[in-house]
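W.,

You were right to be curious about this one. When I first looked at the sequence I had no strong expectations either way, so I just let the prediction run and decided to look at it fresh. Below is the sequence, 154 residues in total, followed by the output.
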Amino acid sequence: MESLGVFSFKQIGFLTPQIQIIIIASLITIAFFTQLIQYIKTRKVYGHYPWRIYIFFSSIYEEIVFRGFILFGLLLFFSPTLSVIISSVLFGLWHLRNNKWQKGRETLHQVLYTGLIFGPIASIITIWTGTIWITVILHYIHNLIVDTLRRKSV
């Protein structure tokens, strides 16, 4: 598993690889059921989005792409600071796709937030730990909190 580098599970403090896998599986299950309940009630997920299976896996595939491939690919050519900036800006721009089902102002807020705050934090944690799985956990927790706050404000 060591040959996988950033994609391998690594012991981070008390978080053994097994605990990380259990946390990720639990968060996927929680996300699935909270979104299913909301879908049954409103026929929408996250208050705005139509039902899409990729919502369940967005934390995993976004971290694999933006922190695993893009960030660590950039680190082969650039400094950590520049790599964090570029990968975070790309991560923010990725969220422009949400304009299909969000108001323009919401999308702009999400692009700025993910590009200037969440992206850099996730990138720094990934570099610091040497693995994407801690940020996958962080990303899931973040999305669950944002979903809960969004539903309370609607």
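Here's what jumped out at me. The helical segments are 17-42, 54-74, 80-94, 104-129, 133-153. And, maybe more interesting for your project: The two ends are 44 Å apart (CA to CA).

Coffee later to discuss?

I.
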